[in-house]
Amino acid sequence: MDDKKKVRVRYAPSPTGYLHIGGARSALFNYLYAKKYNGDFVFRIEDTDIERNIPGAEQSQLHDLIWLGIIPDESTENPNPKYAPYRQTEKLDIYRQYAQKLVDMGVAYECYCTEDELAEMKEEQLANGVKSFKYNRHCLNLTEEEKEKYRKEGRKPTIRIKMMENHEFKFHDLVRGDVKFNSNDIGDFVIMKSNGIPTYNFAVVIDDHLMDITHVLRGEEHLSNTPKQLQIYEYFGWEPPKFGHMTIIVNPNGKKLSKRDHDILQFMSQYRDLGYVPEAIFNFLFLLGWTSEDNREIFTKEEAIKAFDPSRLSSSPSMFDNKRLLWTNQYYIKHMDNEKYFEFIMPFVKKANIPSNLNDNQLKSISLIFKNEIEIGQNITNMLNDIFVKKTDYDEEEKVILNSESAKVVIPLFKEKLEKLNVINQDTVKNIFKEIQKETGFKGKDLYMPIRIKLTGSMHGIEMFNIIDILGKEETLSRLI
After folding, report:
1. How far apart are CA 77 and CA 233, in angstroms?
2. Fewer CB atoms < 10 Å away: N or C end of the chain?
3. Three-class SS state of 328
4. Is 408 a catalytic residue?
């Protein structure tokens, strides 16, 4: 490939769902490759599976990418007239023309076999010990009379590519190194369905060629598609892009990530709604299959672009570590300046059941108390609800603590001392606990936990002074009854 050719990469999802973890990572690495080499990152849509397309999925995929900071140079919403259109359903005539060209060249042919006939063919091959089905070329040399007979029966043909005999497809994979396939292991596959819709392996070649795509970074599940696509490139005499096949993402048990992994959120929209920071997810995904030379863990987008080297893409499966993601997200929250933090956190603050008399400035002050405590934005909603919504029922462990001998002494004593305070601050509240400890001998859990449970109904949370500061003296006293 001409090294002077402008780098152009693409992310081409189907609008059959929303932006998934794996898709977001693929888009990210393509984006980084483009930006590293001053190229273009293209967003296009493979929407030919019309029955499975979901309304709004295309827009959701695109806008979630933009939210992550993975901003396409070209897209369905920002097309370059030279390369438009960006949806496959708007190019069906183009695919048909190219398919017919292959038929005219004698390297593709009409196939009139029915689904039942193909199933029977497959069963016969399995019975004969063939592990991978290959079409038997029944329709390769049909006469016009035979074709006409099938048409009169109402059969509509597919178009199959005629694979070369004993031909070796070799390429240098950007992740895996040198890879080769033999054409004898691949059957004549369908490039156009009987309804006039192109198959993936055909449409993607036409799209990549017409859009001048130079590099393709994608998941390893597409590795077996590569020789099929190279065959089409070879027949047309087109130069193929450079390919790189990234390893799968696995769960902590080493199994391929799937929708059955309920402990791992699958879609970017879920992370967005829960209050993950887009820069944190960008950072996390960057290190999910790529490692820096110095094992750094925090990268800005600009630093990631500068550091990115495709040769450091992992050749081993990448484990999705929820704890690492939460740590990364918390890091970004902690390091926000206050104005950005307020912009990020206030929507989650206002989701809580907060008293109507609190104004925005008071809510901002309260939100700062939690800045170093929360891992995601949703945490502050739950924590504020724990404080503002008075709990009336307790679980068994909480009941045991509230009915303990220490609770019967500590709660009324704390209430009595708090009533006498004229100034409530961190020091005066700490002094109350010190006095009670000195007078009663209770300390640790026996001293603090009964008060905490009475005030919030929870055994965990922010410092006691902060709870009292948020509730105010009057509300605090009313809960200690």
Report:
1. 29
2. C
3. helix
4. no
